[in-house]
Design brief:
Aspartate Aminotransferase, domain 1; 2 domains; 15 strands; 38% helix; alpha/beta; Aspartate Aminotransferase, domain 2
Length: 368
């Protein structure tokens, strides 16, 4: 009987490997959660709304107005979504014909671009970034634009932490004008705000930008994001979004977070995080079990370790939960570390120094 029910599922879903979020992988009972790129500190809010018997607005005017003001855009250029993740899904739903159109994504990067396309039955063209530099392989992208409706670029990129060349992004926008949408996921842009592409939305009608309150705003738990684009794209996305995507409490807290005092607090947290990142990178470079530390412009850092599996397991058992990236393209022996408070960073370095001391063999590390 169960087999008969399973047969009812679409074939692409039966074979789908779901996105492995931090909470799915586990470790939530750890002492030090450095695996999900969340803010290490919380922001306290009190709900101003007390009545919940009515449905919310599909697109709350006060929230859209607040975010449009924050990013310097018009209200009709903003769509509010359940995190940036819903924006990724809506774009595929609205612009890609299953079995006909394709997307491009550039690994190693955020897997939800690929997963959403697989769910929708849309072809995926995988164009890896250039190894070692992590920059876009523009010549290969240009050769593979046939049938492509969407190109997803995460900037700063997750998990590598690099910024893509603005010159390359503009080149990509020019060669796809009238053919494809270039979707730039700026989930981490507050940590490198000068690299935002929002100023180019007016010039390029094929540019779409994804944003979120999950990272710099320390509001991962409320799931609130935004899609920024030309007004005609926003109108199309409004046709496929669910009737009530943003709950009243989420809207209430999100609007509060966009008040000027809370924006200043966010900017101070970003400054602290960036300072902690620089401190952590310098410490990691002087830690024996570390093979390489990659430059980062976000609230995490990618690190290549000697005997990485033992490092990951040892820290996990001590309650320090990191994100294993070894299975991702061109990321062998790599672990992604979210930037915690200075005390959390100190604790991590202390344990890595102890690990290095206990595992060094004749001037190096044994892979056994």
């Amino acid at each position: 009987m169960i087999d008969n029910i399973i047969k009812l599922a679409r074939n692409n879903i039966k074979n789908l490997i779901p996105y492995q979020s931090a909470r799915r992988i586990g470790g939530e009972n750890g002492n030090l959660l450095l695996n999900a790129n969340e803010s290490p500190v919380s922001v306290l809010f009190k709900s101003k709304k007390k009545i919940f018997n009515r449905y919310p607005e599909c697109q709350p005017n006060n929230l859209i107005s607040s975010y449009a003001n924050y990013v310097g855009l018009l209200c009709n250029q903003v769509l509010v979504t359940r995190g940036a993740d819903e924006g990724i899904e809506l774009l595929i739903k609205a612009f890609c014909e299953p079995g006909k159109d394709a997307i491009i994504y550039c690994p190693p990067t955020y897997d939800m671009y690929r997963v959403n396309a697989k769910i929708a039955g849309v072809e995926i063209k995988e164009i890896p970034t250039i190894k070692n530099t992590w920059q876009l392989d523009l010549s290969n992208i240009e050769l593979n634009l046939n049938k492509v409706k969407l190109i997803y670029i995460c900037n700063p990129n997750n998990p590598t932490g690099n910024i893509f060349s603005k010159k390359d992004l503009l080149f990509l926008l020019n060669i796809t004008l009238g053919r494809s949408l270039v979707v730039i996921d700026e989930a981490y842009i507050e940590f490198s705000i000068k690299d935002s592409m929002t100023n180019h939305l007016k010039q390029y009608p094929n540019l779409v930008i994804l944003r979120t309150l999950s990272k710099a705003f320390a509001l991962a738990g409320i799931r609130c994001g935004f899609t920024l684009a030309h007004t005609e794209i926003i109108k199309i996305l409004n046709k496929v979004i669910s009737p009530y995507p943003i709950s009243i409490p989420v809207c209430d807290i999100a609007v509060q977070s966009l008040e000027i005092d809370y924006i200043k607090l966010m900017q101070n947290r970003v400054l602290d995080s960036n300072n902690n990142r620089l401190w952590l990178i310098n410490q990691l470079k002087n830690t024996a079990c570390v093979e390489k530390v990659f430059e980062s412009h976000a609230n995490y850092v990618l690190v290549k370790f000697f005997i990485f599996e033992k490092v990951f397991k040892t820290l996990w058992e001590k309650g320090i939960i990191l994100r294993n990236q070894n299975e991702k393209m061109n990321l062998k022996k790599c672990i992604r570390i979210s930037i915690g408070t200075r005390l959390e960073c100190l604790h991590l370095i202390k344990e890595l120094k102890i690990f290095s001391k206990n595992n060094i063999v004749q001037g190096g590390f044994s892979e056994i």
